[in-house]
Amino acid sequence: MLLLRSSPASPFGRKVKIAAALLGLLDRIEVVATDTLDPSDSIRLQNPLGKIPCLLTDDGTALYDSRVIVEYLDSLSSGRKLIPAEPKARFATLTCQALADGIADAALLLVYEKRFRPPEKHETTWTEHQHGKIERGLAALEAAPPTGEIDIGHVAVACVLGYLDLRFAGAWRATHPKLEQWLAEFAQAVPMFEKTRFVPT
User: What pLDDT, on a 0 to 100 scale, did the predictor assign at position 117?
Assistant: First the structure.
């Protein structure tokens, strides 16, 4: 059994779960709740960075981050693949994933800035820099949403849009109609997207 250290709100953990479902590997994975802020949580022993997601393989090897985990899961699948083998398609897919993950990284930094620093200590230059990454990334995806057979690029884009819905009230939707339609179609094609949606209580 593979152990996935993650949390329900993580866009990167969500990406791994959806990838596992698409690859037919979900029944081989047990998700273990993780608190990255708890000094006693064993995640800090499994991943020295204390970050999620982290996958523990059958022999106890720890794999991180989400891109490494997805590539590992892809290697386990004897059927469907989420990372194309053909070089041009492969690097296009991996670049799309990197763009989506970069948007998610910037969004997470904004969330942490608000969560852990009082308003009077917010650094405008820093937050504007992160907003710029998100805006440019979304503009690039609006101009050219992922197409073709669903791969890990598609999954990563869907997960970051879902995270922006969760943490920023879906403000991106007002100015990115192509992406909004794209996400609706993705959600219809991939039921696991809705199943992994985090709803705060």
Answer: 84
